[in-house]
């Protein structure tokens, strides 16, 4: 009897004992815009994801320089600090939270000087879906990635459906705001 109750408790404690060893901010934030399909925007301080009438899309490519450390699990996170984080969200609040997705890009595929809507690298695998409510609540599904220690790890953020919205955010450490790469030891 005792064993049956103790084992799940240990798993529970284990799951909550994960320690954050590092949090990285994107080293590159490169938008590509369907409306200016051959223009390269270079790296920016803000991220942007948008779609209107199923077109006029804006994607944002991001690259993290993943350090070498003791981390054993890594995941992407997205945080909005509604009161004092600089962000904008357009669209119809009555339609519920907007959704954007994140997919992986091949290693070293982002070229900040050259990437355009037409020439952007093809994404690989779905990594996360992120719901953002108009009050700033965020719910991320998925997000776990292989820890590419000592290497760049790259992703693209894009609308999760054809529903109209526009989201912009400025990356900030204090308060924590935007997309981050989190590294944990179990
Ligand atoms: C990515 O590429 C760099 C240099 O080209 C290489 O050193 C690194 O191991 C690669 N990382 C992965 C995860 O493939
Ligand atoms: C975004 O991800 C969800 C799964 O969470 C999927 O159903 C949806 O089709 C994806 N959207 C796009 C545009 O790939």
UniProtKB/TrEMBL annotation:
Q: Which Pfam families match?
A: But2 (PF09792)
Which positions fall inside the Ubiquitin 3 binding protein But2 C-terminal domain? 24-175
**Entry-linked InterPro entries:** Ubiquitin3-bd_protein_But2_C
Keyword Signal belongs to the record: yes
Highest taxon of source: Eukaryota
What are the coiled-coil residue ranges? none
Signal peptide feature range: 1-17
Keywords attached to this Swiss-Prot or TrEMBL record, sorted alphabetically, are: Signal
The protein's name in its UniProt record: Ubiquitin 3 binding protein But2 C-terminal domain-containing protein
- Protein species of origin: Zopfia rhizophila CBS 207.26
The taxonomy runs: Eukaryota, Fungi, Dikarya, Ascomycota, Pezizomycotina
